[in-house]
């Protein structure tokens, strides 16, 4: 696929083929794409937790009612922010920087033939703290990305809206 096709073929998938194992090589390709994202002053304020363990995924589902797709997904990739890496340089831009990393990860997964669903945690601090405790991380869990082989083909929901564009000449 070319870039335009990947962008237009990315969907939020909530049903996956159960029991599909994603090769480590593909996981690392997705993570590499995420880490190629731009960040303020190249601070790269992120780290990732790859959760293949079904019991941990079940506990994530208990923390957030919006992650039920983890029941059939092959794995979850938790994107965690490291605001400490931006102290003094690029300070405060970690949500945008991690968002760019997440989008790269989603697009790479699509190109590899996987479905994904981006589930936000930050800024709902109660969920952030519970996920931080579960994963035993000191960073800030921003989002959980469900990854797997899609067992549905959601309709495209994005579209170009001319009314939301202003040209300044």
UniProtKB/TrEMBL annotation:
Signal peptide: none annotated. Gene3D superfamilies: NADH Oxidase. SUPFAM superfamilies: FMN-dependent nitroreductase-like (SSF55469). Keywords: Flavoprotein, FMN, Oxidoreductase. It comes from Blautia hansenii. Pfam families: Nitroreductase (PF00881). Its cofactor is FMN. This is Nitroreductase family protein. Residues 7-62, 68-148 form the Nitroreductase domain. Belongs to the nitroreductase family.
